[in-house]
Amino acid sequence: MLARLRGQALAAALAASVVVPLSGSEVPAPAPRRPPEGLTQARYEAVRQDILVAGRTAAAHGQARRAAALRAMAEPGRRFLFFDGRDGGRAAEVFGDLAGASRVAVLVPGSDTGLDTYERLRTGARALQEELGGRAAVVAWLGYRTPGTLGAAVLTTGRADDAVPALRSFVRELGPARVSLLCHSYGAVVCGRAAAGLGRLANIVLYGAPGTGTDGPLRTPAPVWAARGTRDWVANVPHVRLRLPFLTLGLGPDPVAPSSGARVVPAGDGGHSDYLRPGSPFLRNVAAIVTGAAPDA
Q: Can you identify the CATH homologous superfamily of domain 2-16+86-290?
């Protein structure tokens, strides 16, 4: 009975979500050039030029908000491994010595993250880099078109499945053994769907997760960790997978449940957007995980 009620609730949510209007038209952007390979200054500069071109294009089309965001991204000293202003936007920004780091934390964001809201992802990456104190590099990976929190896509694994090839390719480029994936909200679904093909990562951390997009524990040899703040609304999301004739609704298992197989990390009393807030228990614990130390019990 409970499972049926949860399924009905998900179906109702889908029906409601499809009538929510789109948040504006797509911002025009040119196709980026293929940047040089390697973790080099030449690559960073080539990507910066693509960002500048996209910013001028946005300004020419009267997209002031996007143009301002891209001007900030192109400021001297900032380093991006890739950028694409089309289809909601893609970017990966580096914090710290990526080429020389023995450990790398890659942030995989969740819903409502795009170029216009990128600063939120960057703020979390900078807070983590400061907490690490140079012990590891950090990459903010906006490598897919994230779903909207009020859209139908957030109820399925479709956007996550689209992101899987890009995430696996990016991890291979960095070297899996030194990479810890830190997967927030719907980003945990991306990591869950990609896990089986990522190789032996250092860690996978799922936090503020509505599910993993799987039918059971992640199929990975990497240590899996999970966290949820006591005031995170995502705890109220039904953890089901409802298979319908035309799609599957729901995002699957609760990562902090014992059946998930993940090690639960204390996250304090924060809400859904508080995990990487400076001074938070989760920020301290995830920095310990990335560097190979034990988090607080």
A: Alpha/Beta hydrolase fold, catalytic domain (3.40.50.1820)
